Amino acid sequence: PQSPATSQTATDLEIEGEVKAALAAAGDRVTQIDLDVLAGQVVLLGVVADQAAIEAATSAAQGVSGVTGVTNFLLLPEPAYEKRLRLL
């Protein structure tokens, strides 16, 4: 996409802060998510504990004023990953 105007960039930064606050308010399971905002579009990236965390993060982002859409790239951990963590 084309680079947004300076005023749009400032708005995107405000939206990013509000989405981060909404994710923090949604609970511990969704606070380890990276996000980016471009022209009101929010992109969520990360690995979360369960499907409920994916839904909570998406819902929290969609509820922020100024968000025009949410693209979700949140994943669940592979089962073998949790077993390796327990061994450490």
In total, the number of strands is 3
Q: What summary fits the major beta sheet?
A: 3 strands, mixed
Radius of gyration using CA atoms only? 15 Å
Q: How much of the polypeptide forms β-strand, as a percent range?
A: 15-25%
Structural class call reads alpha+beta
- Poorly predicted segments: none
Terminal CA distance reads 43 Å
Number of helices: 3
The backbone outline, from C-alpha atoms, is elongated
Order of helices and strands: HEEHEH
The largest beta-sheet arranges its strands as 1-2-3
Rounded mean pLDDT score = 83
Q: Can you give the helix content as a percent range?
A: 40-55%
Entry summary:
This protein has 88 residues and is α+β, with helices and mostly antiparallel strands. It has 3 helices and 3 strands; from the N terminus they run H-E-E-H-E-H. The chain has helices at residues 6-26, 51-62, 79-87, and strands spanning 34-38, 41-47, 69-75.
Describe this structure in words.
With 88 residues, the protein is of the alpha+beta class. 48% of the residues lie in helices and 22% in strands. It has helices at residues 6-26, 51-62, 79-87, and strands spanning 34-38, 41-47, 69-75. It has a three-stranded mixed beta sheet. The chain is elongated and about 45 Å long.
